[in-house]
Specification:
Layout: H1 25-32, H2 36-43, H3 51-64, H4 70-77, E1 82-88, H5 93-108, E2 112-118, H6 125-133, E3 140-143, H7 151-155, E4 161-163, H8 181-192, E5 197-202, H9 208-223, E6 227-233, H10 238-246, E7 256-259, H11 262-274, E8 284-286, E9 303-306, H12 308-323, E10 336-339
Parallel strand pairs: 1-2, 1-3, 3-4, 5-6, 5-7, 7-8
Antiparallel strand pairs: 9-10
Helix pairs in contact: 1-2, 1-3, 5-12, 8-9, 10-11
Region (Disordered): 1-22
InterPro entries: HTH_LacI, LacI/GalR-like_sensor, Lambda_DNA-bd_dom_sf, Peripla_BP_I
Domain HTH lacI-type: 23-77
Amino acid sequence: MTGETPGADDAPASPVPAVPRRPTIREVARLAGVSHQTVSRFLRADQTVAPALQDRISAAVVELDYRPNLVARAMRDRRTGRLALLLPAGTAVSSLEMLTGASDAAREAGFVVEVVTLGGPVDGRAGRVLELADSGLFEGIVSLTPVPVDDDRLGSFRTPVVVSPEYDEAMRGIGRLADAERLAEIVEALADLGHRRFLHLGGDYAHTSARRRREVYLETVERLGLESWGVVDCGWSADAARRAVGDLPGDCGVTAIVGANDKVAAGAVRGAAERGWSVPDDVSVTGWDNNALGAVMMPSLTTVDVDHEALGRGAVAHLVAMLGGAPPAVDDRPLTTVLWRESTGPAPAATPPTAKSRRA
């Protein structure tokens, strides 16, 4: 008895993977214990939703990974569900963290964020922003770089535009990213630990942040009646900082070194070790930026953490509130925080008395 060879049509069909069902707004409402109308108001950034309810709804959105059906909403409301985030050309590590915060805030409000790079001459940006605002592609625009357009003209755009200038045309931090108030806090705390003679390792002064940290350092030292051995311009170079510490006279009396960022601070720690100084027993060292390597150094590095995610979240929240016709919420939480670690401690019991103070 002979059998037939199965043909292609007889082969068992491959199973088609099931597409997971997306959670609905009513499921978010049930989990949060509110009505679906309240969830809808929350997604529109309606500030009349009580803060306690906002927290519950936000938690439900995250737990269910709820994402509104943007296509359906656009057909119903003639809305795109898209926000534009404008940045200058260039790269900055902080911009990735900022984008995370912006994207999270947009998603919770039922939007997606698209990054648009503003290249070309600065004086051409106004035309580019106007083009985007009139394109109908976006429901709102946030610019994290200055736009050479006056407020009256911005208010006449078809699409709402929020300008929150945190980066200059070369993607260098300005605005709140250049705020140096934590450096004053560092110097004050080190003074409380007995330090009296300081050294500042400066950054690249093309950056507003580097200039502000130098200014605040000098202002605070003078205000507290402390001594500055000087300011060494290191241009963000760890090797320049290492050499600067190595070149200090043995009787300089410096017991605290304030770095403009974590790279120069790490160079200072290396320079101290090469000349036989212990950190923090002989000299305390601080940085800025909370580079991940600073936490695992020996000793771990005292630094300043900058909450870039909060920066992006706040900018988008401002825009979403504007779209909902509500005043933007005021977030008074500081953007920067000093992280005290092993590289700082009390000043040595005795310091060489012969050193002379030198102002930069």
